[in-house]
Amino acid sequence: MPKVERTLRVDAIVLHHTNWGEADRLLTIFTKSHGKLRAIAKSVRKMQSRKAGHLEPFSHSTLMLAKAHDLWIVTDAETIDAFSPLREDLQLMTRAAYVIELLDRFTFEEGQNWQLYQLVVDTLKHLSDSQDSFVPLRYYEMRLLDLLGFRPLLFECAKCRKAIQAEDQFFSAEQGGVLCPSCGARSDDSRLISMDALRFMRHFQRSDYKTSLKADPSPKTRLEIEALMNHYLTYHLERKLNTPEFFKQIQN
Q1: Which of 71, 114, 123, 166 has the fewest beta carbons under 10 Å from its own?
Q2: Ranges assigned E (strand) in 162-209
Q3: How is domain 7-81 classified at the architecture level of CATH?
Q4: CA-CA distance, 180 to 114, in Å (whole number)?
Q5: CB of 177 within 8 A of CB of 205?
Q6: Between 149 and 131, where is the model more confident?
Q7: Where are the domains of the chain?
Q8: How far apart are the C-alpha atoms of 35 and 47, rounded to whole Å?
Q9: Predicted local distance difference test score (pLDDT) of residue 4
Q10: How does DSSP classify residue 28?
C-alpha cells in the first residue's frame, strides 16, 4: 500500500473559510501540488493569533499541514502575496470573489491541477495590477474552460461542423458553442451572438494574456460577451453563480 503523507508543505490560495468551534476556522484551499483541500486553522479567531492574517480569502500563502483524522491542520502559514489592492476596492474584491467562486464550483477535493492553480494565481495578480478587469476575467474564463474540458467551439458550427462565416450567428450552451444561422434557427436553446462578440471571444480563446490585452470591445459588446460567458458557465455548473448578481447590485 502507498504510504499516506502525514505532513505537507504546500503553496495555496485560500478560497473561503467558515467558523469552526469556539476559535477555529475551517478553510477551503486550492494547492499547487494536491488540488483542493479542507484544513482546520486552530485558534485563528483569537486576537493574538499569528496565522490569521495569512489565511484570509484570496491570500496566496505557503502552509504547513498535518493530518488529523479526516482533516488537515494548519500548523504554520506565511504569505506569498496578499493581493492587497483586491481588499481595498469593493468592485475589485467582487471580481476576485468571482474568480474564486468559479474555481470552487468547478473543482473537487484532492484533484491535482497545477495549471489551474497557476491560472488563478496569475488572474488575481492581473486583477490587482489592472485598471480594467474585463480582459483578465474573460481570459480567465476561457483558460478555465480549456483546462476543465469545456472549451466552446467558436470557429465552426457546433452541430453541423461547417465553418462559421462573417455574419451574426447563434450560440448554444447545450450544443457546446456557436451555431450557424441554419442550425441556430432550428435550435430551441440558442441565442443570437454578434460577429463583434464572437470575434473577441475567439481572440481570448486563442491568444496568450499579453496578446489578449490588445482587445478593446465596445461597452455593448462587453455586456454581450459577459452575458454569453455567464450563460455558458452556469449551464455546465447546473446552477447560478452568486457573484455576478452581487456585482450588479453594487454597481447600481
Answers
A1: 166
A2: 169-172, 177-179, 191-193
A3: Beta Barrel (2.40)
A4: 36
A5: no
A6: 149
A7: 7-81, 132-251
A8: 30
A9: 60
A10: E
